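Milestone M4 deliverable, item 7.
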Amino acid sequence: MTHMLRTTAGSHERFLVIEVFGRYAGFTTMIPALAGAADRCLIPEHPFDMDKLTKLMMEDRDRNPSNYAVVLVSEGATMKEQKEMSFEGEEKDMFGHKKLGGIGDKVSAELKERSARFNNGRPVGIVNQRLSYMVRCGEPDAFDSIVPMAFGNIALDLINAGQSGQLVSLRKGLYDHGPLEIIMGNKKLVNVKKYYDKDKLRPRFGSFDKRPLFIMTTEIVND
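Output delivered:
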């Protein structure tokens, strides 16, 4: 989905700011950024400095032959000076959570204003997009089709075996299942120290040898 928006950003030589799902965890920005969908990514686990982001984005834009740069923003990400996440309103869902949304708008406005300092007094234009449900209505690839089919088969096998209260999952690249407490007992957050470069605002990774497919989703980090 991100790649589809690059043409517009490049043709107008702008910053592309994309807000995606991610209330407490930044996997939805980290994994696409690792795959090359963005130059930088902002995650809920690490409040970011707006001046640092602006400087990095200007450097990315200057290095790009098409003069644009891309940042992915988790909906739960916050600037250092923010006291709380950005909400659309006061309405709450069935779990008591207020609906998130708006951090992408704030980042866009700040980027445009601060970019003038690095661009001879001229602000850089913005393409601002909140993907939201556009992500869920995208065309499935082979992975999207095979995994739910396999999950359904495993779930049926568990029912036939008389087992309940189980979570079907992919664990270290293998189909697996375990008690629901796996997700109810802990928040699964990005291990910032291990996988996120706070200075460069992008994923950090070492060797891929003998690592699972999604290397940073295999560990649980408690608050």
